[in-house]
Amino acid sequence: MSVVGTLEGASSKPSAAGSIRRRLGPRLYGVLLIAAILLFWEVSSRLGWIVSAYWPPVTKILWAAISQLGGGDILVSLAATLRRALTGYAIGSVLGIALGILLGKSKVLRIALLPLIEIVRPIPTPAVIPPLILFLGVDDALKIFAISLATFFPVFTNTFAGVATVDDTLIQTARTFRTSWARTLLRVVLPATLPAIAAGLRTATSLALVVAVVSEMVAGSSGIGYYLVEMQYALRPDLMYAAVMYLAITGYAVNRLFLVLEARLIPWMGKT
Amino acid sequence: MSERLGFDHVTKIFEAPGSDTGFVAFDDITLEASPSEFLAIVGPSGCGKSTLLKMAAGLMPPTRGRVLLDGKPVFDPPPGVVYLFQQYAKSLFAWRTVIDNVMFPLEAAPRSQRNELREKCRDYLKQVGLSGFEDSYPWQLSGGMQQRVAIARALAADPQVLLLDEPFSAVDALTRMELQSLVLQLWERRKFTAILVTHDVEEAIFLADRVAVLGAKPTALKEIIDVGLPRPRDQLTTREDPRFLKLRHHLTSLLLARNPAHVAAV
Fold this sequence. Notes:
The structure holds 2 protein chains of 2 kinds. Chain A is 80% helix and 0% strand. By secondary structure, chain A is mostly helical. Chain A has 12 helices and no strands. Chain B is an alpha/beta fold. In chain B, strands 6-7-8-3-9-10 form a 6-stranded mixed beta sheet, with helices on both faces. Chains A and B meet through helix 9 and helix 10 of A and strand 6 and helix 2 of B.
């Protein structure tokens, strides 16, 4: 924060540049670096420093991206990917939260299920896609299953760890008011664990997107992963990079949205 | 509106790893609070006073002996017994507003009664001096105010027995006096049975009808004294009463493990 003060103190009179500086604040240098890299990319392609059909200038990629806005293949593919990612994410999240809380609170379930979860957890999800194709085919069932699996673990792990940190006083308070076990889980343990759950859910968003794209690359005939591979074969690097750009924007937007929702829905985060 | 709560030859032994005998927290404690009595239990820090109260609340079973509520043994938290925790901040629900915290014990009631109960909760908040803070969150309030929320929530549960586990030890001295007076006021109005656990001798004398003194480990009952100070009590005049000072002298020497006989003769 002191950096902002120095920056603002340095500009003696209000100017257009000053106002941009204030708006961007400490992010200014980060944005400048990104702009410099993009400029370098553009120049390197235009001036022939890198001579390659797969190295189009940035402006060409941007143009390809913008031209897609009128209803191009990229947006259709992205929508298909997001639909799968969201479905798998929802399933994996619900299971992760439910099992995280149940295992966190029940010793019997912990003893029964934790070893299984611990042994499956370290397997990188993309590694199980090829064997899964044999059982689930190449369509949505496979992809949604893989995405659920990838989502499940960070959500479960964070929830499970979060339950352990719920203060005993809270549980005892519920007990002295003769609150039932189910109600205590739902009305006390779950909300008390929400900050930890949110951290797991946020981590899982990027994983869901990764596994959605990877699974589409490996199998199937729709989605942005499939589109990327197609454009690679079609020697259309501009569209390939444009698709990557849309993915970057999506990932960034989801993360921002999450932070805003967290602040809105969990205002007590870090306050207790 | 109040009930009798008693410890009948209660012994509590905590299992200690690598030890056959375990750690004896209490040995053979028999003590009873009569209906509408304000009983204080004082003892040195770490003597396990809270454990005694948690057994009374049905949160923890005794190893031997029984906790009796109106003559019936307590196993699980019984209805009408409400516990006021020392760590008020940890006992309030951070995701609920003040009024929703107070509503918590009443939520098993049918939906049709919700509005009426909510009004009641507003009244409880008024009784603890928190009108206007209904929609705040606990973490937006000071420590003393948070404990007031916990007290209002205890009132909402319609306590026959109120268990107070060093409830004022985490607030500043002035706030502590305010909260003590508040609890006394509510107790005089509602006439529940109150059991207070504290290491503050003055607090015990100021609030209670009787004070039970616990000794060092393994904890046993050392003495029970009648306070006998007139009510209503006042933070200034009661504390300046010569009888108050004499009791304080006596109890403090007991806790400091001096010879009480000698002190009593003075």
